[in-house]
Every structure is written in structure tokens, then in C-alpha cells.
Write a structure and sequence with these properties.
This is Cytochrome P450. The chain is an alpha+beta fold. It is built from 19 helices and 9 strands.
């Protein structure tokens, strides 16, 4: 009887303890010793939607705390004033990564080259054979081949009929997954896993080796090529000769005494930054874009109407009567002149990026202590995390219809686009800005969209689940299975 009484006393104390410490407002409870780790662990599989819920209930900014002994602090925010403060007003205190050089004409040329030689042949084959394809995998391969060619003058030919297995693509996905994991657990936990070489940290080490082997291998081949040809090519600007970005950066490394012995690592990091930005932004952005079109056929119809109107206009001005111009040929041939005139298509892509930003989180750490407009004090021990996914879905920012797919919200008039400042719409700015400039990402997406919509009908496989993956890049967890039919 004595043991039962002791048990009841302990149970009652624990019950009261949990009752008083547990938050009733739906926000994560900051438990003694373990902090908010239970809430994060419980919702880790749905971390993007969970961030929306927490930020909606906490007036756009939420201070998270890990276990006491880890001194783990992070500030989640989608407050436009905070974003503006960090990205603009006090920009110098929050360093960012490398700036990407825009090479517009060269990139467009390579994009259409890959569309003609890889994307269309594969979709034609899928249409003829009537087999299911994973549109996410297709766009990832398309982006990978395009970025590899532009950055390194190397075509891995990942988008081919037989869809070869490429360890590099899986390694990049694993790397992105580990980054999110490291943000969700105390530093001492993942560092201990790294010391033991187990779990996510073993995956991280294996991914890094594959990534390094691939990129350093490409660097080595490029050096051999350059040593054989003393006249290295230059970046294509206007009518000048074109070349890859690796050649340009190698020339910079050769000229810069500051980089010195770190030249190889500098090249590796620069090239990897292009891969993460380009492959993720364009490929992931495209797959969510086509998913939204499949769910909203009226939007797809409006895009086709705009393309048809532009085709008719261009056909009227074309004087070569010996050529039979179809919609695809007219739009692809005149893409450079048309890409900024496709107003509704532009608005639709912006709206898709709002709802499904390719980069789901953006992290900053201040150099010096600072006070944000929201009143939160931050220092170098705190990670500030912009939830780009949450920012695009906040009722307080976008209204009650914030989760609806409405391209019209971006349009002031039929011939104008409403450009929202980046400090209000981080979900849009943080994705496209990172891939050869914001406009370049939109350009690639427009080109691929025109090529597909003009030639094919995309039909999603019924009952296939479409949910975001727990990753820094907003992949679909199980891909996007579709069937393709050529017109």
C-alpha cells in the first residue's frame, strides 16, 4: 500500500507539473531542461505546415529554445518589418553568400538547347509509350543538365530515355535533408552523431564525398582542357564568344593572390552554390507550378489563351511564307523578345512561388547584437530563421484567401505586373534571387513551361499523394507521378 501511495503522489506531482508548464495557446511549450524539443520532434515530419501554425499564433515572430544545456536559440519570423531590417536597413550586420553573375543570353541559349535535345525527346517517348513519369525527377534532371553545362561546360546527360542513376543527385538531396535536421536538434546531438559516424551525420559524410568527387573531377578535367588550349573562352556577352562559368572563375582564381592555396576549395564552393541554387529553385519551382496547374485547369486555360494571342501576333508580323509556324516554334524562336510580355504566365509563376517557395527556410546570424523592429533582441548565438513557406501563407499578410491559387493578385492591370517588395514577400525573393539572378530563374521556368504547355497535356496519376518533404528545399516527398499526351 505504501508503494501505491508513493506512486500516486509522484503521478499527481507530474500531472500538476505538466499542467502548469504546458502552454494552452497551441504554441510549443518550453519545458524545464528539455526546452521545446518535444514539440519540434513531434511535428518534424510536417515542419513547414507547423511553422505556419506557430507563426500565425505568435504575431509573426516566435522565439524557440532547445534544451537548457545546449544554449540553443532560434528566432522564427515572417514579420515584414524584421525581414526589411535584416535584408535592407541593417544589411551589413547579417552577411549573405556569394553573388551570382548573370549571363542572360548564354543561359537562355543553353536552356533551349536542353529543351530541344533532352526534354522534348523524353516527353515524346513517354507520350508514345504511355508510361508514368515522375515530373519532379524529370525537372530535377533537366535543371541538373542545364546548370552543369552553364557552370562547368559538362553535360552529365541525366535526362535521357533510360534515366541513368546519378549518385550526385541523391547526394545533394541527402545533404539538404541533413541541413534541416541540424537546425531541429541541439548542436551537441548532431556533433556526437558525427563523432560516432552514425545516422544523419553518416549520410552527410557520404554525400559530401560523392559531391566532392564529382565537382573536383570536373575541375580537374577543365584544368587539363585549359592547359591544352591556352586561349580560354570568355563569357558570352552580345556577339562575343561564349563559355562556361568555371572557366571564368578559374581565370579569377589564377589572377587573385588572396585566394592562394584555397583556390580549389573556392571553386568547389562556388560551383556547389550554383548547383544548390539552380537545381533546387528551377526544378522544384517547376514541379509545384505544374501541380498547381493540374489542380486549377482554369488557370492553365488562361495561360494557353495568352500564348495563343502572342502566337497570332507574332505570326502576323512574320513575313516568311515558306515556313509553317506553329505555336511552339513561334514562341521558342522569339522567346528572348516575348519572355517579358507574357504577363499572365509571369503572374502565375509568381503565385506558385508564393505558395510553394523552392527554398523553404532562409537562415541569418547577426555579427553584432541587434534589436529587431518587433522588439526581439538577437546576437551571434541566435539563428534567425525566415520561414518562406509560412510567409506565403499568412492570413495577416495575404488575407483570408492566402492559401488559394490566384495569379490575379499579382496583376494591377491586364498589361502590368505588381512587383511586391522583397521585404514583404520573402517567399518569392529568397527562391528565384539565388539562381543566376531572380530574372534568370523566371526565364528558365517560362521557357520550360512554354515548351511543355505548347506540346503536351499533363494528367496526374490519381490517388498519388503530393506532400512537401522535410527538407531545406521544398521537394515533393513522393514525387509527382503523371502521364503525358502529345497534342
Amino acid at each position: 500500500m505504501e508503494y501505491i501511495e508513493i506512486f500516486l503522489v509522484i503521478f499527481s506531482l507530474l500531472f500538476l507539473f505538466c499542467y502548469f508548464f504546458h502552454k494552452k495557446d497551441g504554441l510549443p511549450t518550453n519545458w524545464p531542461v528539455i526546452g521545446m524539443l518535444p514539440a519540434v520532434s513531434k511535428n518534424y515530419h510536417r515542419i513547414h505546415d507547423y511553422a505556419v501554425e506557430v507563426l500565425e499564433k505568435s504575431q509573426l515572430t516566435f522565439l524557440g529554445k532547445g534544451p537548457w544545456f545546449t544554449n540553443m536559440k532560434f528566432l522564427f519570423t515572417v514579420d515584414p518589418a524584421n525581414v526589411h531590417h535584416i535584408l535592407s536597413k541593417n544589411f551589413g550586420n547579417y552577411p549573405r553568400g556569394s553573388k551570382f553573375k548573370e549571363i542572360s543570353e548564354f543561359l537562355i541559349e543553353k536552356v533551349w538547347e536542353k529543351i530541344e535535345s533532352r526534354l522534348i525527346p523524353f516527353l515524346d517517348h513517354a507520350s508514345e509509350q504511355q508510361f508514368e513519369i515522375d515530373l519532379q525527377d524529370l525537372f530535377e534532371r533537366f535543371s541538373f543538365d542545364t546548370i552543369s553545362t552553364v557552370v562547368m561546360d559538362y553535360d552529365p546527360e541525366s535526362l535521357s530515355i533510360d534515366l541513368p542513376n546519378l549518385p550526385f543527385l541523391k547526394a545533394v538531396r541527402d545533404f539538404e535533408e541533413v541541413i534541416v535536421y541540424r537546425h531541429a536538434v541541439p548542436t551537441c546531438v548532431w556533433k556526437f552523431q558525427r563523432w560516432l559516424d552514425i545516422g544523419q551525420e553518416k549520410k552527410h559524410r557520404e554525400a559530401w564525398k560523392i559531391i566532392d568527387d564529382f565537382i573536383y573531377g570536373c575541375i580537374s578535367k577543365k584544368r587539363e582542357e585549359m592547359s591544352k588550349n591556352s586561349k580560354s573562352k570568355a563569357c558570352k556577352v552580345g556577339n562575343e564568344v561564349g563559355a562556361d562559368l568555371m572557366t571564368i572563375y578559374m581565370d579569377e582564381v589564377r589572377k587573385s593572390a588572396e585566394i592562394g592555396s584555397n583556390g580549389e576549395k573556392f571553386l568547389r564552393d562556388t560551383i556547389l552554390a550554383f548547383f544548390f541554387a539552380g537545381r533546387g529553385t528551377v526544378g522544384v519551382g517547376l514541379v509545384w507550378f505544374f501541380y498547381l496547374l493540374s489542380e486549377n485547369p482554369h488557370v492553365l486555360s488562361k495561360i494557353k489563351e495568352e500564348l495563343d494571342a502572342m502566337t497570332t501576333q507574332m505570326q502576323y508580323h512574320h513575313t516568311d511564307d515558306d515556313i509553317m509556324w506553329n505555336r511552339y516554334k513561334i514562341l521558342s524562336t522569339n522567346f528572348q523578345d516575348l519572355k517579358d510580355k507574357l504577363i499572365y504566365l509571369h503572374a502565375t509563376i509568381c503565385e506558385a512561388l508564393r505558395l510553394y517557395p523552392p527554398v523553404a527556410f532562409n537562415t541569418k546570424v547577426p555579427i553584432e547584437p541587434d534589436t529587431l523592429p518587433s522588439g526581439h533582441k538577437v546576437d551571434s548565438s541566435m539563428q534567425i530563421i525566415f520561414s518562406t513557406y509560412a510567409m506565403g501563407r499568412m492570413k495577416s499578410l495575404w488575407g483570408e484567401d492566402c492559401c488559394e491559387f490566384k495569379p490575379e493578385r499579382w496583376m494591377l492591370e491586364t498589361d502590368k505586373i505588381r512587383y511586391v517588395p522583397s521585404h514583404k514577400f520573402l517567399a518569392f525573393s529568397s527562391g528565384p534571387r539565388t539562381c543566376l539572378g531572380k530574372n534568370m530563374s523566371l526565364t528558365v521556368m517560362k521557357a520550360a513551361t512554354i515548351a511543355i504547355i505548347s506540346r503536351y497535356h499533363i494528367e496526374p496519376v490519381q490517388a498519388h499523394p503530393v506532400v512537401p518533404e522535410t527538407s531545406m528545399v521544398l521537394h515533393m516527398k513522393q514525387g509527382f507521378k503523371v502521364k503525358v499526351a502529345a497534342y
